[in-house]
Amino acid sequence: MPDQPIRELGDLRALKVLAHPLRNQVFEHLRLHGPATSASLARDLDVNTGATSYALRMLASHGFVEEVPERGRGRERWWQAVRRDYRLPPPGQRDPAQRAMVDEMQRLGLAADLDMLAAFQQQRPAMGEWADATPFSRSSIRVTLAELEEFFEEYLALVRRYMRTDEEAPEGSRTVVTRLLAFPAPDTEGDGDEPPSG
């Protein structure tokens, strides 16, 4: 898939839309599972259709989702996530309100990821050959700030290499959840200013 357009998420109103629990769920569901109607979203997320309809309208008003008119029949409306490379403002450039919204988005995201991992573990016995498809790595690296940025961009380039639409995906493929979490190791007592090497 070609590089996706970058969208900087500095607008507080857009951040508030994504920091709302249900809207965040709807957006992530569309990103992960593809197009859906408000009724199918309501069923999958166990909420009423009025709530999903409103969430979709709010997400659409900020350009996060769009209608898929060719899939609709009659009054049925299908929605899909708008594919973008969404970027948050660097932490040092966020004002207090932005910081609060980003913190909430990250909290929601981490909680949803843990729920998804638990669901996978529960469904794993029925997944056949995919049951063992769980590469796992816990590492630490020693880098400068510039190198960390380069590391992140290389990771994104690798992910983009495998991002495909349903039409582009090879036979036998399925959606796999990938996450990268990187942060400076917290100091321990006695570390001083210089963390240990290695």
Automatic annotation (TrEMBL):
Sorted UniProt keywords: DNA-binding
Domain of life: Bacteria
Entry keyword Transferase: no
SUPFAM superfamilies listed in its UniProt record: Winged helix' DNA-binding domain
Chain ranges of the HTH arsR-type domain: 13-106
Database matches in InterPro entries: ArsR-like_HTH, HTH_ArsR_DNA-bd_dom, WH-like_DNA-bd_sf, WH_DNA-bd_sf
Pfam family, one: HTH_20
UniProt KW DNA-binding keyword: yes
UniProt GO molecular function: DNA binding; DNA-binding transcription factor activity
Protein name: DNA-binding transcriptional ArsR family regulator
